[in-house]
Amino acid sequence: MTRARATLAGMVAGPAVLAVVGAFSNGLNLLMNLVLARVLDPAAYGAVIVQVSIFMVLSVVGNALLIAVVQKETAADGDSRRDQWAWIRHLRRRCLFGVFAATVLALLICRPLAALLAYAHPLAVAEAVIGAAVWTLLCIERGVLQARGAYRRLAGNFVIEAAARVGLIIVFVVAGLKVNGAGLGLVLGVALGTDHARKSLAKVPRALAAVPRRAVRSASLAATGPLAIPQAQIMRRVGLLSSTWVALGALVPLALLQNMDVVIVGWLDHDGAGDYAAIATACKVPVFIGLAVANFLLPEAARRRAEGRGAGAALAVALALVVAPGLALAAVGAVAAKPLLSLAFGPELTGAASSLSILALGMTFLAATLMFATYLLGSAQRRVVVVLAVCAGGSAAAIGLAGGDAMSTAVAVLISQAVTALAAGALVHSMHRADARAAAAGPAPASGSASAPAPSPSETPSAETPSAGARPAGTPRPSLPSLPTRPSRASGAAAEGVSRGPGPIPPVSGPGEVRPASVW
User: Which of 131, 181, 241, 259 is most exposed, with minimal Cβ within 10 Å?
Assistant: First the structure.
């Protein structure tokens, strides 16, 4: 097997495993919905869906923290094993305290919040809040697993967490706990997944590089252009909090783009909300697979960007893995939408079957947008936040103008999601063009040094043309300045810098300590 084939096989293996696991988790979620729909009455089933929606909205905070964790871990700030684990332990303690605080707060505000939402299960609201708080602990472990490339262990954690969560929810609901049992199963399932992820992470320490990462970045500057390296350094300096806020600014519009159509249709057309919810659930397949594949694309983009390399091939693989199932679902929906919905949800929820293929194409564009946004966030490109916010507002307006009709809403979703995907793709293209221009321009000159053009053959010193520093004949040689018999270590370091040839002297931070200019 050639090196190119080996590289391609390694690149496909990671996202392929995650895509398969994403499809498996999606199947478990579908199984849970089918069981709950048959065990619970319609009002209780609707209450469970509302509880899950509250959890999904609040879990965006944990997902944003995951992106920040991946960026910090790939920055490789600490070289020792102790440094590698110190910030992770500190973050775990802070988030664990946040879980306790969120639990107390949720129990205090669940009743007034349920009354505000006209929701008959206040304890279920508290369970959703607590589950989202525990989710942040799981995101820390998964973020480090992603950054260290442990994709198989990450995939195993997806299976364990999804199986535990779905199994516990079904057991508690069937046991008679109903809506509150579903929330309890959600919290315990996420907690078990967190424990499994932490044990898996303990077996995957980050490898200690023989060459410091800063030296690698400095050495790769000449080959990749000057843009990628400063971007990686800026990403490392902003810290976890700033990275989390940026990621949150991108994930909130993505969550709205994924779920706002169901909410708006339910608000405008109560009678047709169930039919549209059925096709919306079926069409989320490419999005759920994209959420799994993003766990590969995010660390790959961040790591390669930090090393001064592009990750376009990883993006292409990720796009192929989410677009292919979306197009397949659209094709099936065009010829067999009604039998598919009748088999999955029952014959009473097939009223919007004619809109399935159109909505499937719209969700395929959303999955592509998710890949573009993940790639840009991994590359520390913040412009995607503004683009997603604007497109989410436009999508909400378009869906509202559809008036709640299933076909009109599906068409509005398709158009708005296509525009959003094109806008995000344009940002990726713009970033790649900027990198190409920077690489073509060559490495930037070192700070404090003057770049002098190479002399042409006509300017080469010869016997007839003395050089600028040549001493005319007959001129006495100037005496050299007296040197101290015992030079200081700092001046010796400076003299060593001069002895290397023309160019800037490396900065000296202390006695006998000379740092490369790239560190400064």
Answer: 241
